[in-house]
Design a protein that fits this description.
By secondary structure, the protein is of the alpha/beta class. It has 18 helices and 26 strands.
């Protein structure tokens, strides 16, 4: 309903009752306020617009304005301009229809808009009054102080004091899954990205303004060695000009360093980001600590840069105790315990290290991103920050990563795409041998394999890994029945492993297979029954690979078949015979890759005979090795050549 024209109040008593209702409530009896109605401050002497004024457009402070005095309970005309309401004051107009005073932000429609001075004029008037105040004495000061006391406080100043980094004073908040780091606009009981329950939490951006927008780029800002405008595309010749590729990599010394260099492709590349993963307790921290000591031994000059080892899981005293046990006493090896990436980079900057080691990547975090250390978003952002740090400073960074129960590195799969090199350390708890395998290498081959042995003082390189899975047996030993030697290739390394078989006739139990794929073993047993004529139907066949090795390569098929035949026929195989080859469903023997390298390794180990497929005879004949090659085309020829009684 539109507000009618202003009218005179009906009686002073009704006006007194209205003012009593509009006064602030007593603290003893709080009155509920309607949140939909705006609240306006009421002055001690409210002013009203009278409709009995003869002036068609009333002027503030002139005719038509009346002031109510609660002491005399009467209305009186305003005598001066000082009683006129300011622009920011609320306008009170009595509505005879509703019987109450209606508060408005602007002049009533019956009033002329020109009657109110504009803000600029009002400010100018205040300045003039301020000038007159200095000249007019105490009277001007009293008027100015009264006007300041009546000026209402703007709500915008209160909102500005509580203003957050978001727009319009609103908090910039989002809901982030602590498991996968996915952001949502509202809260969900189950993350819609990873389907984890109860992991969506509210995240409010910090008070650093755009810190979250900049992200981890702020972390490496102080390390930028050159201006971005100087970076221009360069030709390959310009890039390689003046660089000695042979001496470019950081060298490693000793047999331990040679094994690491083999896996890395010839040494440590400056500015590379290397991730080392493995099962708990396999020796990742010991390996990296020895690597740090080896890097410092290669540069024994007094002015050489140090290597910084940062641990988020151990204190520096615990790291020092492990270094003492491993006889590491280098003075250039610096230890630090921390989990904040920005703090770590700030602390190591004065040292200008030769290499940086982070143990582990799942324990560090970036403050400008949501989530706790170890979740997917934090692992990704920390790795990205360290990658930029490594590329901008040419300092290699080693990261130790946890693995899940499935054997993969914990964190997003993107982590393995970000880094330059991914190394996996493998080994059984019951075995002292450790294998360092390269899964990804941008600076070398992924076929290399490092072989170590865990000793009392740390990891030691195995000098002859080809025979580490072999055991010593006498030629007339009874246990040689059912034992055959296979030659397999793991990366660029060749290993000779022992395969054992046991055939038990009349057993009601099914056979068991250890170290060999069960389906592959079933295929070989079926081929021996069909193509070679062995009566294995009533026998339970047990297979085992010595030393816990996993035989997954098809080059070991012939050794598996030889061990089964030896146990079934109870015919021992001489301990100087090796077997290389794959078995087809027709009983034929097939060649396998790198036959020459396998046979050379067997000859170096002292074997006298080697059974190979017939198709590989031409390839091996030009080698002129001190070993007898026994080529066979199928299983029947193989059995006649090996299990024939010596006449």
């Amino acid at each position: 309903m539109p507000v009618p024209s202003a009218a005179m109040l009906r009686s002073p008593s009704s006006l007194r009752s209205l003012i009593r209702l509009l006064r602030p409530p007593s603290p003893r009896l709080p009155l509920p306020l309607n949140p939909r109605l705006p609240r306006y401050p009421l002055s001690v002497c409210p002013r009203f617009l009278s409709s009995s004024s003869s002036s068609p457009s009333p002027t503030p402070g002139g005719a038509g304005w009346a002031t109510y005095d609660p002491l005399t309970d009467s209305l009186s005309a305003s005598a001066s301009d000082s009683e006129a309401p300011a622009e920011s004051d609320a306008w009170g107009v009595f509505d005879p229809v509703w019987g109450r005073i209606v508060m408005q932000d602007s002049l009533p429609p019956s009033s002329s808009p020109t009657a109110v001075p504009p803000p600029a004029a009002a400010a100018h008037g205040e300045e003039e009054e301020g000038a007159g105040e200095s000249e007019g004495g105490e009277k001007g000061k009293g008027q100015a102080s009264a006007r300041v006391a009546r000026a209402p406080t703007k709500w915008s100043t209160v909102a500005a004091a509580r203003k957050s980094p978001g727009k319009g004073g609103k908090e910039r908040s989002s809901y982030v899954c602590s498991n996968c780091g996915e952001a949502h606009s509202q809260w969900w009981g189950t993350c819609r990205h990873c389907n984890a329950m109860g992991t969506v939490v509210k995240y409010v951006a910090g008070t650093d303004g755009d810190a979250s927008a900049e992200g981890s780029h702020h972390i490496v800002r102080s390390w930028i060695p050159q201006k971005s405008k100087e970076m221009v595309p360069q030709s390959l010749q310009e890039v390689n000009k003046g660089i000695n590729q042979a001496a470019w990599r950081i060298p490693l010394s000793g047999t331990f360093g040679m094994e690491i260099s083999r896996v890395l492709g010839g040494g440590i590349v400056p500015g590379s980001l290397i991730l080392v993963g493995g099962d708990p307790g396999v020796g990742k921290s010991s390996l990296i600590l020895q690597l740090a000591s080896n890097m410092l031994e290669s540069f024994k000059a007094d002015g050489s840069s140090p290597v910084v080892y940062v641990s988020g899981e151990e204190s520096i005293e615990q790291i020092g105790n492990r270094a003492h046990r491993m006889s590491i006493t280098s003075s250039k090896l610096y230890l630090y315990s921390g989990t904040d990436i920005e703090d770590i980079l700030d602390k190591i900057q004065p040292l200008s290290p030769r290499a940086l080691i982070i143990d582990s990547i799942q324990t560090v975090y970036v403050k400008s991103f949501a989530g706790s250390a170890g979740n997917l978003s934090q692992v990704k952002e920390c790795t990205s920050a360290l990658l930029r740090f490594a590329k901008l400073t040419n300092i290699p960074v080693f990261l130790i990563g946890h693995v899940t129960k499935s054997g993969d590195i914990a964190g997003p799969r993107l982590l393995e795409h970000i880094v330059d090199v991914v190394l996996y350390m493998e080994g059984e708890r019951c075995s002292s041998h450790r294998l360092l395998r390269s899964v990804k290498n941008r600076f070398g081959s992924t076929d290399e394999l490092g072989v170590f042995e865990m000793a009392e003082f740390g990891l030691q390189a195995v000098l002859n890994p080809s025979q580490m899975f072999l055991t010593e047996h006498d030629s007339d030993s009874e246990i040689l029945a059912g034992l055959a030697v296979a030659v397999i290739l793991d990366g660029s390394r060749t290993f000779a492993i022992e395969v054992q078989a046991l055939c038990v006739s009349g057993s009601h139990r099914s056979g068991q297979v250890v170290g060999i794929p069960t389906k592959r073993a079933d295929v070989i047993i079926s081929v021996l029954m069909k193509q070679a004529g062995l009566k294995l139907q009533d026998n339970a066949v047990f297979l085992n690979v010595v030393s816990g090795f996993e035989l997954t390569e098809t080059a070991g098929d012939l050794a598996i078949a030889a061990s089964i035949c030896s146990s079934f026929l109870e015919f021992p195989i001489p301990n100087d015979v090796a077997f290389i080859g794959e078995i087809g469903l027709g009983g034929e023997l097939r060649t396998v890759p790198r036959m020459d390298k396998r046979v050379i390794t067997v000859a170096k180990l002292g074997y006298k005979k080697c059974v190979v497929p017939k198709t590989a005879e031409k390839l091996l004949k030009p080698l002129n090795l001190d070993i007898e090659i026994l080529p066979c085309s199928n299983l029947k020829q193989f059995i006649n050549a090996i299990f024939r009684p010596q006449g």
